[in-house]
Amino acid sequence: MNRNKVLFNPFDAEFQANPYPVFAQLRQEDPIHKSIFGTWIITRYADALTILNDKRFQVDNFPERLQLKSAYLKEDNLDILAQTTDKWLFFLEPPDHTRIKNALISSFSRASLNAMRPKIQAIVDDLLDRFAPRGEMEIIADFATPLPAFAITKILGLPIEDYQQLIRWSAKTVFIFDQPVSLEEYKEQNQILIEHRAYFAQKVAEYKRQPNDGLISQLANYKDNINALTEDEIISTSILLIATSQESMKGLLSNGLLALLKHPQSLEYVRQNPGNIENIVEELLRYDSPIQYVSRRAVEDVEVSGKIIHRGEYVVIYLGAVNHDPEYFSNPQQLDFSRRKPNLGFGGGLHYCIDR
């Protein structure tokens, strides 16, 4: 194949504004594409599913890389950033990954989230009522940003009045996942996490003395000594949940609404069929995924669809691409709320998004 024919640059402004034409070209001409950066770009659903479920592909050791970057700092270090991310599910493998995820699953089960529904509905109603007299709202600032912040604050059992501070912290913390990130930006994130950790350390101590029905209190008072989380793990996990739930849900809400506004017939379907809300959300998640990619590192040489991915090489699975793979989804460019096939909007395999 003529590599000049498929020019893949993830930092290109045109690609970031609308990546789907590039995804379609890559899928057709070079679905397992070795980029100019040395990473493998995955754009087919079947290949993505294979990699996500193959133990020979593991998550990046991001905390270790942070420690190496600290050597380039003359006075400061990134110890707090490394300490925090070292306990994040994103970067853990079993058995620690399994232990921490199992401690969280009950709070994100269907039954637990259904029990939260009246509280979340009250938050939604309140947000909408605030702007009803105006007849308009700025969807991201007025709705998609505060709603997930209110929701995760309720789930964690934190004071609702703290949500704005939590949003400010998480807005900085989530940029850890953006690449490239300068050393100065890492230093700023390190400092923010010092404040963030102090807040959660205080809450863990408070909820040990005075438990409530929130997740932090449950983790702090966990009775199973074998699977109990350390205080460091509780703090780091709470920071992760705040940051990731904020960004993923904000993206899903804003992308989903934009898709519906562009497709009036689909919007009318949503209005007429509230009982099909789960399928509707899944299709909106597939159609324009708020999380566009996940990465894995090969721990040994692996052959995938005829390509050899060598030990130590990285693969980047573009979820937006695989969720538009016509070999798996019929008419993927169309919104279709009758679809039943599972999508990879929140990843898959061991490291899928827990709040799905």
Number of helices: 16
Taken as a percent bin, the fraction of beta residues is: 5-15%
Number of domains: 2
**Assigned CATH class of the largest domain:** Mainly Alpha
Order of helices and strands: HHEEHEHHHHHHHHHHHHEEEEH
- Taken from the alpha-carbon principal axes, the silhouette is globular
Name of the CATH homologous superfamily of the largest domain = Cytochrome P450
Structural class estimated from helices and strands: alpha+beta
Could you name the CATH topology of the largest domain? Cytochrome p450
List the topology elements:
Blueprint lengths: L12 H5 L2 H10 L2 E3 L5 E3 L2 H8 L4 E2 L3 H9 L8 H7 L10 H10 L4 H22 L7 H6 L1 H11 L6 H11 L9 H27 L5 H6 L10 H32 L1 H9 L4 H11 L5 E6 L3 E3 L2 E3 L4 E5 H4 L34
Parallel strand pairs: 2-7
Antiparallel strand pairs: 1-2, 3-4, 4-7, 5-6
Helix pairs in contact: 4-5, 5-11, 7-9, 9-10, 9-13, 10-11, 10-13, 11-13, 13-15
Account of the 3D structure:
It is built from 16 helices and 7 strands. The relative contact order is 0.15. It folds into 2 domains: 123 residues, 2-Layer Sandwich (Uridine Diphospho-n-acetylenolpyruvylglucosamine Reductase, domain 2), CATH 3.30.43.20; 200 residues, Cytochrome P450 (Cytochrome p450), CATH 1.10.630. It has a 5-stranded mixed sheet, sandwiched between helices. A two-stranded antiparallel ribbon has the order 5-6. α4 runs antiparallel to α5 and α7 packs across α9. 53% of the residues lie in helices and 7% in strands. The model has no long low-confidence stretch (mean pLDDT 88).
